[in-house]
Amino acid sequence: MLKSSYFKFIIISIIGLTVLSGCSKKPAVDEARAKEVVVYTYDSFISEWGPGAVIADAFTAKTGYTVSWVDCGDGVEVLSRALLEKNNVQADVILGLDNNISQKAIDAKILSSYKPAKAAECIPEDVRLQLGKDWQLTPFDYSHFAMIYDTQSNVSCPASLEDLTKPEYEKKIILMDPRTSTPGLGFVAWTVAVYGDKVGDYWKALKPNILTMAPGWSAGYGLFKQGEAPLVISYTTSPASHVEYDNTDRYVAAVFEQGHSIQVEGAGILAGAPNRKGAEAFMDFLISEEAQELLPLTQWMNPANKNVKLPESYQVAAPIPAKTLSADPVVTEKAVEAIMKILEK
Prior knowledge:
Helix content: 40-55%
Largest sheet: 12 strands, mixed
Number of strands: 12
């Protein structure tokens, strides 16, 4: 009996030491992560000219948290990374999901609802509702898609999507792959909104005029600036960057009377985020005027916070289309499959 009690004591002691050992190590892990917010985003956001660095510095100065950005490629690839890690969440915040892929993230249950401080007061409802009603994603910027035209080229400026199929634009249009790029997907959504179930016919006519389909916006717009083609899919706000920093009005957004689809970009907290407290602090800061004022001259999109004043270059070179178009994301996703088969033939 004594021997049995002794061994029982030894076993309990070992278990106790193991538990205590585990507990003593856990705070060290938590402490290392407690002041770090890991954010998955896309390449241009954290490029040398993007807003990532200045937002991170301002956030750290205000809250004491540091930001670790993770470049996942383009917007669609950001979502793919989060989906792959659904059962082993590594990041706290995902930034860059737009209205064309937001429902996919919501349906996959990878997001956790959080309404940032003062969000309802500063974000216009028509912008907010593009990303759903329950604050799983919060808008941080937006703009309309547009074809950007080089006025020094030897072709005329198109006046409609239909114009883009004309022979004069053969191999003169740069697009992005809709399977990896949100601007690429946005252009598909635009064509779906205009042509509906005839969208395949439109893309068959457009095919000869596509010079390349870049993997992401950075690569595609880079080719455009190098003079590889006179037209590229981007945003109505993009020419403002050339006015502001290049002191030129050479590049303009072609505004079509038929309307333009819109992109609303959002950020959200991942379900199971290791640093939930830090993630909430980041979300609060992201839509604050302090952070949003950094976006126009770095991100070249309209800030979601309506209280932020836009720079003069936006008044000069960032036209606002009279008509906003939208397409069902499910229909758009199906269209992508059909369109890629057309382009690959």
